[in-house]
Design goal:
By secondary structure, the chain is mainly alpha-helical. Helices cover 59% and strands 9% of the residues.
Length: 99
């Protein structure tokens, strides 16, 4: 799990990644994903130097995140095994989301 700080100064979860081990290849993959998302943010905000309010910037970044996540189609290796374990541990919480 990677934690960042939001605009209010509160800790917020940036993402949760599951892997067999925490090798350098595992962390490099995560850093590449975060770098790619940051590149998308820079691309969106580069053309506009001033935002009238913080809310307008948040909305623009939300839309950029939404657009970027639509491209994320890679399925995690071993996802079926992970999903089965999550279902055993959190059955009533996860069942509504997996249909």
């Amino acid at each position: 799990m990677i934690i960042g700080v939001n605009l209010d100064g509160m800790k917020d979860v940036l993402g949760i990644w599951i892997g067999e081990n925490k090798s350098s290849k595992f962390w490099l993959n995560i850093l590449n994903q975060l770098s790619s998302l940051n590149r998308q943010y820079r691309k969106v905000t580069k053309s506009k130097c001033i935002f009238p309010t913080d809310t307008s910037l948040q909305k623009m970044l939300f839309l950029a995140t939404d657009k970027a996540t639509k491209k994320w189609t890679q399925r995690y290796r071993g996802w079926d095994k992970i999903l089965n374990q999550l279902t055993i541990l959190y059955n009533e919480r996860i069942t509504p989301y997996i249909g």
